[in-house]
């Protein structure tokens, strides 16, 4: 892959991290998927997770979204504990209410565009702003229309998901996440379920968000050119551990580990 000139420069790592994993462990029953995982993501930084199937990428995003229970360690968002905190040397679970407050600043888009099927595109987008943030329907609808315009779907406000292509549904899902003004956006293989001709529009929308906002992004993708263009940093996972990490040029052009090389040759 040729190097691109517009590889973004990483934001300052000195600020309080937007996301911090500290000694994170995640088990499903007897199976430990993540062990002693430590990493930080700076505010405004865009980090792509790559690695073989089953290496724990989705689990990491789902832990940040609090869709999975953290079985060990701590996750901090903006320096504040997300689900557990350390108090007098003990690991204490936070009240659910506080966790919920924290997650309102986090948006996630999944591989399967899971829109509410019984709602129009616009209704999908205003649902959380109205019911979680308490916005008026009028205000939320005005913002939703702007977001639909931004993702190229100004004419689809009243369409139900079944009337939209996969790519259009995914763009509605992105608009729905943006409607909550997230500080952090988690993207898990958002183009993998799409027909190839629909991928470009979705990536175009994400490139636009990357270029025009300072939302912190943690993403999983097999679109390596896209990863190279938008990421400040790429982290290669293997068996729940960071095998190596660095700027996209370094990871894609000069990987240090044989396992990274073989992974990249399998996806490029
Ligand atoms: N709910 C679950 N119950 C049991 N095991 C699970 C569960 N979710 C994930 N796992 C296991 O955790 C490991 C990591 O899964 P994860 O989905 O995070 O991998 P991934 O890197 O996202 O893989 P892929 O590239 O295929 O999406 C796998 O071995 C998987 O089988
Ligand atoms: Mg996954």
Automatic annotation (TrEMBL):
Pfam families assigned to the protein according to its UniProt record, in alphabetical order: ABC_tran (PF00005)
GO MF annotation list: ABC-type amino acid transporter activity; ATP binding; ATP hydrolysis activity
SMART domains tied to this protein: AAA
Gene3D superfamilies: P-loop containing nucleotide triphosphate hydrolases
Signal sequence interval, chain numbering: none
Domain of life: Bacteria
Positions of the ABC transporter domain: 19-264
Record EC number: 3.6.3.21
GO CC entries: plasma membrane
Coiled coil, from the record: none
TM annotation in the entry: none
Keywords, ordered alphabetically: Amino-acid transport, ATP-binding, Cell membrane, Hydrolase, Membrane, Nucleotide-binding, Transport
Membrane topology: Peripheral membrane protein
Compartment list: Cell membrane
Key word Hydrolase present: yes
Family classification: Belongs to the ABC transporter superfamily.
Protein name: Polar amino acid transport system ATP-binding protein
Species whose genome carries this gene: Brevibacterium iodinum ATCC 49514
Lineage: Bacteria, Bacillati, Actinomycetota, Actinomycetes, Micrococcales
């Amino acid at each position: 892959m040729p190097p691109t000139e517009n590889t973004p420069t990483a934001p300052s790592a000195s600020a309080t991290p937007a996301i911090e994993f500290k000694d994170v462990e995640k088990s499903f029953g007897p199976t430990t998927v993540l062990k002693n995982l430590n990493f930080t993501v700076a505010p405004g930084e865009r980090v792509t997770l790559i690695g073989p199937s089953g290496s724990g990428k989705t689990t990491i995003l789902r832990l940040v979204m609090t869709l999975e229970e953290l079985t060990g360690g701590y996750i901090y968002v903006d320096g504040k504990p997300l689900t557990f905190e350390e108090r007098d040397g003990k690991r204490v679970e936070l009240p659910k209410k506080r966790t919920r407050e924290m997650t309102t600043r986090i948006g996630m888009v999944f591989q399967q565009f899971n829109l509410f099927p019984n709602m129009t595109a616009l209704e999908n987008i205003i649902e959380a702003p109205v019911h979680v943030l308490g916005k008026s329907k009028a205000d939320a609808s005005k913002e939703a229309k702007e977001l639909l315009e931004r993702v190229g779907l100004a004419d689809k406000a009243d369409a139900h998901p079944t009337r939209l292509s996969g790519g259009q549904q995914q763009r509605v899902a992105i608009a729905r996440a943006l409607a909550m003004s997230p500080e952090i956006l988690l993207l898990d293989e958002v183009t993998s379920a799409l027909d190839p001709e629909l991928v470009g529009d979705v990536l175009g929308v994400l490139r636009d968000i990357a270029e025009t906002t300072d939302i912190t992004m943690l993403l999983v993708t097999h679109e390596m050119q896209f990863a190279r263009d938008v990421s400040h940093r790429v982290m290669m996972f293997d068996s729940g551990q960071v095998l190596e990490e660095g700027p996209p040029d370094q990871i894609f052009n000069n990987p240090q580990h044989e396992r990274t090389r073989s992974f990249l040759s399998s996806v490029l």
